[in-house]
Design a protein that fits this description.
six-stranded antiparallel beta sheet; mainly beta; globular; Rieske_2Fe-2S; Rieske Iron-sulfur Protein; 9 strands
């Protein structure tokens, strides 16, 4: 699903320099819990913080390249797409990120603001 930028509420998460490389950070907004990662490439990725298999906290998982491994059962999740890698199945929601003046922002759909 493609969401236009004007349909997002931008929430300041953290200063970019405060993010450790390949280490997750939990961000909460209106009942949503997001795992935010700064990859070794410097790229930012944000996904739903709970594994679809056993609800493991993905911000606590091990990051390798563009994947995070669930700390409970080692499910491998592709950070850009949110897809659980085969032979396992499932997916998690992904979130748009942006960097402005040294701060990281996460885009949440405006409809969630009403639901939250």
């Amino acid at each position: 699903m493609i969401v236009k930028e004007e349909q997002l509420v931008w929430v300041k998460a953290v200063a970019y320099e405060e993010l450790a490389v390949n280490t997750g950070r939990t961000v909460r907004y209106c009942g949503e819990e997001v795992a935010l990662f700064k990859l070794s490439s410097g790229k930012l990725q944000a996904i739903q913080n709970r594994c679809p298999h056993k609800d493991g906290v993905l911000a606590e998982g091990i990051v390798c390249d563009e994947h995070v491994f669930c700390p409970l059962h080692d499910r491998k999740i592709h950070l850009p797409s949110g897809l659980v890698q085969l032979p396992d199945t499932g997916c998690v929601r992904t979130y748009t990120t942006k960097l402005e003046q040294g701060d990281v922002y996460i885009g949440f759909p405006k409809a969630q603001e009403l639901a939250g």
